[in-house]
Every structure is written in C-alpha cells, then in structure tokens.
Design goal:
By secondary structure, this protein is α/β, with parallel strands linked by helices. Helices cover about 20% and strands about 30% of the residues. It contains 3 helices and 7 strands, in the order E-H-H-E-H-E-E-E-E-E. Helix 1 runs parallel beside helix 3. The radius of gyration is 22 Å and the shape is elongated.
Length: about 140
C-alpha cells in the first residue's frame, strides 16, 4: 500500500469473537489514517453467534469507529465456515483464541515420560476455590 504499492486492491477484515466491537472500531479509525488502505477495504465480517452482542458491536462501530465508505459492507456470521470471499482477508481474534481448549504436555527428566498439564481445584480454608496445575500421566 502507499509508497510500497504492494498491498491488495481490495481486502476484507474479519474478527472472530468480537466482544463489544471495540477492537474493530479502533482498527477502522487507524486504517482511516491511511487512505490507500482504507480505500482498499471492501467489507467487515464479525463472526459472532450472540444476537445481543451483534447489536452492541454495530453500535460500537458507529459510535467509536471511523465513518465507513459506502462500498464497505458489514455483516455478521454465525461461524467461521460462513466466511466466503475471493479477496484477501485480514483476520483478528484478540481473545477468541484464548478461549479455545489447549492441551499442554511437559517432559519430566526424572520420570522419563511426557505428562499432560491440567488445572485442578483444591479447597482452601477461606472457602474460595484455589486452582493448581497437576500432571496427568500420558497414555
């Protein structure tokens, strides 16, 4: 883009799990400071399953985001499977990835084996649950 002349002519922005819509609003404001980039934006897709959050995202985009050019479409998708476009996409997923299940394995030199690290809850004297990491013997 700009002096580099290497950016795509058109692209879409996709946000996975957009929450209140603050990140996308911020991105549109920043991108609006770069006319070549903003002009290449053809659409925004929010991947969101909550109708209530979709309303809030639209309001946040209107209140805090840059005024979008008329050619920019904004749409909500219920799943990543619905993302369909022929142009490059710019995907952001600020906290979406944090919510995905992850398996972590560590190797113990003493035991000479791999173990899965898991989170367990132990009771405490204060009544508040206390989380701890525990090893689970791998199969």
């Amino acid at each position: 883009w700009g002096s580099r002349k290497g950016g795509p002519r058109k692209f879409r922005m996709v946000e996975l799990g957009p929450g209140k819509g603050t990140l996308m609003a911020d991105l549109t404001r920043v991108f609006s400071q770069f006319p070549d980039v903003f002009k290449a934006l053809s659409g925004i897709d929010f991947v969101e399953s909550s109708h209530a959050l979709s309303k809030q995202q639209l309001q946040t985009l209107k209140d805090r985001g840059a005024a979008l050019p008329d050619n920019v479409t904004v749409q909500w998708l219920a799943s990543v499977d619905e993302i369909k476009c022929t142009e490059p996409i710019f995907v952001v997923a600020q906290e979406f990835v944090d919510a995905l299940p992850v398996h972590q394995f560590v190797y113990s030199e003493n035991k000479r084996m791999w173990s899965e690290v898991m989170v367990d809850v132990e009771s405490s004297t204060s009544g508040e649950p206390k989380f701890k990491l525990v090893d689970r013997k791998s199969v």
